[in-house]
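Complex 133.
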Amino acid sequence: MESVASLVKVSLPKYLQGLPIPSSLGGFASLSGQDWLALVPFVGTVSLLVYVTVRAFTPPAKPKDVPVNMKIQKESAKVVNMVDIEDLGDKISYCRCWRSKKFPLCDGSHNKHNEETGDNVGPLVLQRKEAAK
Ligand code: FES
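Predicted structure with FE2/S2 (inorganic) cluster bound:
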């Protein structure tokens, strides 16, 4: 702890007093190459501190919206599937994740998608009341 106190109370003020910082903006024009080199660590450290502080108080960039449908019938302006209600049977699962290889039916691909992305999508399951019992 004593070394930190010595650094803050003795070494740092001594270092800062030794920096060739001119008293006016015009004074920067008269600095030598060696003076500029002496300022590099100070300017770099201050820049880093400012950057870290600004980043800490700046909200992260909002991710851009990505398409839900990554590969199914991309040549179509709109993907529409028609199903005759008489063909539904007792139970059928329709994909809502757009990753099924049997689209529009669910093939379980949502499980892999959920594992990889942290998402929680699942199928739309249509089931007759009598079949659920
Ligand atoms: S595969 Fe897409 S919801 Fe199951």
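DSSP finds four helices and two strands in the chain.
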